[in-house]
Specification:
This is histidine kinase. With 253 residues, the chain is of the alpha+beta class. It contains 6 helices and 7 strands, in the order ααβααββαββαββ. A 5-stranded mixed sheet has the order 2-4-5-7-6. Bound molecules: adenosine-5'-diphosphate (ADP). The site of adenosine-5'-diphosphate has 21 residues, from helix 5 and helix 6.
Length: 253
């Protein structure tokens, strides 16, 4: 075969591969859209019956609490706790389906203030776990306030949650300035993540750790990734198992 025929054959193969790839990308985009619609519709429909369960459990406790034995109190507690966890899943699913779709206005945001607000909002759990924070200095940027707040809260919540009592309870936040963007880093000294899961944890419902020990829905990082994608940024993790993790995301200057 001549060189020319060989080249034509190769080009044809590349073209066919490209067409196949485009088709797969379209299919993936469609299934993602369907998943988002499913999440949105179902989370709305699930909220009402759940509200009823919680409300009737409260009434049962209030009106008949005095005549119920210890076992019955325990059952009410389990049911109420199950309802609370389900509510969190529904709220996170709603958040997941909304994330990245709403075009928010870009306003001036001082990330130091956002961080200070977080500490006030979560002061109870911060005190309980005796967590210390160090802010190495954050910039002011132009950005979408709701999406940015949620991303930062989600990463800080995880840093607090996956720091156990006997580990150095230290969480550090810092920013590195690049030519046209900042890299924000949230560093903990908690339980850490095995390198083989670095990409996987940003996918919806991926949870690595003992579900009994760590409450969660497996949606926080998927939501954060959608937000960061929406402003054209990147999000990633570096971690050593048993030593701690650093989560990074980028945002334009
Ligand atoms: P979850 O609600 O389970 O925390 P996320 O989507 O926020 O869900 O995180 C996905 C998984 O990634 C978690 O279940 C946990 O296993 C792991 N993970 C996230 N952040 C950290 C962290 N700072 N340290 C260790 N593991 C983490």
């Amino acid at each position: 075969m001549t060189d020319i025929t060989e080249r034509i054959k190769q080009e044809q193969a590349v073209k066919e591969l490209n067409i196949k790839l485009q088709k797969h990308i379209k299919e993936l985009e469609l299934s993602n859209e369907q998943l988002e619609q499913f999440a949105f519709i179902n989370s709305h429909d699930l909220q009402e019956p759940l509200r009823m369960i919680t409300s009737f459990m409260n009434q049962l406790q209030r009106k008949y609490g005095g005549v119920l034995d210890e076992k019955a109190h325990q059952y009410i507690h389990f049911a109420t706790d199950g309802a609370r966890r389900m509510k969190q899943i529904i709220l996170d699913l709603l958040e997941y389906s909304r994330a990245g779709n709403a075009m928010e206005d870009q306003i001036e945001i001082d990330l130091n203030e956002l961080f200070a607000q977080y500490k006030i909002l979560r002061r109870k759990v911060i005190q309980e776990k005796d967590v210390q924070f160090i802010n190495h200095g954050l910039p002011k940027i132009m950005g979408p306030i709701a999406a940015l707040t949620q991303t930062l809260h989600s990463l800080l919540d995880n840093a607090v949650k996956y720091t156990k009592q006997n580990e150095p309870p230290l969480i550090e936040i810092s920013a590195q300035e690049e030519s046209d963007h900042y890299i924000i880093q949230i560093k903990d000294h908690g339980i850490g993540i095995d390198a083989k899961f670095f990409d996987k944890i940003f996918i919806i419902f991926q949870r690595l750790h003992d579900k009994e020990q760590f409450d969660g829905t497996g949606l926080g990082l998927a939501v954060a990734k959608k937000h960061v994608d929406s402003w054209g940024g990147k999000i990633w993790v570096e971690s050593t198992l048993g030593k701690g993790s650093s989560f990074y995301f980028t945002i334009k200057k």
